[in-house]
Q: What sequence folds into this?
């Protein structure tokens, strides 16, 4: 008869060996992944310039954590992974979660008219809901796009004073009918959180989110509790040579739309809590990650505090941010159980946070973006690609040959220089985007396909450039 005790004793060493081998293999895989990421990212940050902190987690476990560049350029002080930085509009996912927590507790409803909590807000007789603020479909104009914003950005203002700067601006469209990104909407959400909870925005996110999740170095800027080092923010100097300190901004102005500070470690804790459903009911969490649908059936690329899209065919939930001196990007690939966050201490002149984040995530997912090597093309070949290409009935993308390279713009705006990597392919330096032209059987150029983070998009050539 088989003795089970003997069998257990006999198999114990084998099980231990298998666990050790599995652990060793996992460590080797993580090391190989870390090396691939580092090899791809290290060349993007130059010695002596501002840099970035990066974290990658897979199934909740960190597989890459590193800092690049300088925390203080003048002092030659290197960046460290635990550095605190402004996260700008990544703040919006925390503000949205705060609103959803209050909704889950029955203290507000997403279809509530905002005048229920802000009775003096002039809506022009229109009904504007909390959900419309969350999804950028309220029609309320974006205060950071106003010409007066930059001139007054250093002033300390109360939430009420800030609202006064935009509340009388005309609505951009009928509330709920369109999507237009608006920091004003998320500013108003912050004041609603205060009205409903009886706490300041800073207190609410600290007491209800940061402290329970152990996010000790996260706070509304000016209300920090942790001891991790803060870092100077930079911008490329006006001469294009070197860097200078970023423009001074009062953090009373970005507020609930972009006023938080954090570290990549704390952001990883945040993602773990999101995955665990630690803060919201499942239905609320699912709604936050679902692209909003307009009444006409059009899907907008936003849920509640999260952009909804694709990264090389993979479902992506993300958000970026930019504020004077800093930029940020964080994304989730739920199907791959991946999270990547990148914080930088420059708003220009270094590798963009969104590009770095997407590049890292694609490598970690085993689906990297193609690497391109620059080549020189004959000017006559560049001339063949000149022309207008149809985006839609109102917009065109134009290509022209200038100074020995191809230049792209959209309706005469946002000119971008392209670099050739083949006789029909061109990439945008410091991005994940590239274009490829196609010809017909007779050799005439007929279309261009744009490749980027999401699905490729093809535009047909419609003619020569307008003179």
A:
């Amino acid at each position: 008869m088989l003795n089970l005790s003997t069998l257990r004793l006999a198999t114990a060493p084998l099980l231990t060996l298998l666990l050790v081998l599995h652990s060793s293999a996992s460590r080797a895989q993580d090391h190989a992944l870390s090396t691939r990421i580092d090899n791809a990212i290290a060349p993007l940050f130059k010695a002596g310039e501002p840099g970035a902190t990066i974290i990658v987690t897979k199934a909740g476990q960190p597989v890459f954590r590193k800092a690049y560049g300088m925390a203080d350029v003048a002092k030659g002080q290197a960046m460290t992974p635990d550095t605190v930085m402004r996260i700008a509009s990544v703040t919006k996912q925390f503000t949205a979660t705060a609103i959803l927590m209050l909704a889950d507790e029955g203290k507000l409803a997403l279809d509530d008219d905002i005048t229920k909590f802000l009775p003096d807000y002039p809506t022009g007789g229109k009904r504007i809901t909390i959900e419309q603020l969350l999804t950028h479909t309220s029609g309320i104009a974006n205060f950071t796009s106003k010409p007066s914003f930059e001139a007054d950005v250093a002033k300390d203002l109360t939430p009420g004073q800030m609202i006064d700067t935009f509340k009388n601006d005309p609505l951009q469209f009928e509330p709920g009918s369109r999507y237009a990104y608006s920091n004003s909407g998320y500013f108003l959400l912050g004041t609603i959180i205060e009205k409903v909870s009886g706490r300041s925005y800073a207190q609410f996110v600290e007491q209800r989110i940061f402290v329970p999740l152990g996010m000790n170095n996260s706070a509304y800027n000016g209300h920090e509790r942790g001891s991790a080092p803060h870092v100077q923010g930079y911008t490329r100097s006006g001469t294009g040579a070197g860097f200078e300190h970023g423009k001074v901004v009062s953090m009373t102005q970005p507020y609930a739309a972009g006023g938080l500070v954090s570290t990549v470690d704390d952001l990883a804790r945040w993602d773990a809590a999101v995955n665990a459903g630690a803060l919201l009911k499942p239905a609320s969490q699912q709604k936050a990650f679902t692209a909003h649908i307009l009444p006409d059936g059009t899907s907008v690329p936003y849920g509640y505090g999260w952009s909804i899209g694709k990264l090389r065919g993979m479902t992506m939930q993300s958000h970026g941010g930019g504020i004077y001196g800093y930029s940020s990007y964080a994304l989730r690939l739920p199907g791959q159980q991946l999270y990547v966050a990148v914080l930088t201490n420059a708003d220009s002149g270094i590798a963009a946070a969104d590009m770095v984040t997407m590049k890292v995530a694609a490598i970690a997912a085993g689906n990297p973006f193609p690497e391109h090597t620059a080549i020189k093309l004959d000017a006559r070949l560049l001339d063949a690609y000149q022309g207008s290409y149809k985006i839609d009935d109102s917009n065109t993308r134009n290509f022209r040959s200038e100074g020995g390279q191809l230049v792209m713009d959209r309706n005469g705006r946002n000119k971008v220089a392209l670099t050739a990597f083949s006789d029909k392919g061109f990439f945008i330096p410091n991005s994940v985007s590239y274009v490829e032209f196609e010809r017909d059987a007779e050799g005439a150029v007929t279309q261009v396909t744009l490749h980027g983070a999401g699905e490729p998009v093809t535009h047909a050539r419609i003619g020569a450039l307008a003179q």
In short: The mean pLDDT is 93. The chain has two domains: 85-364, 379-463.
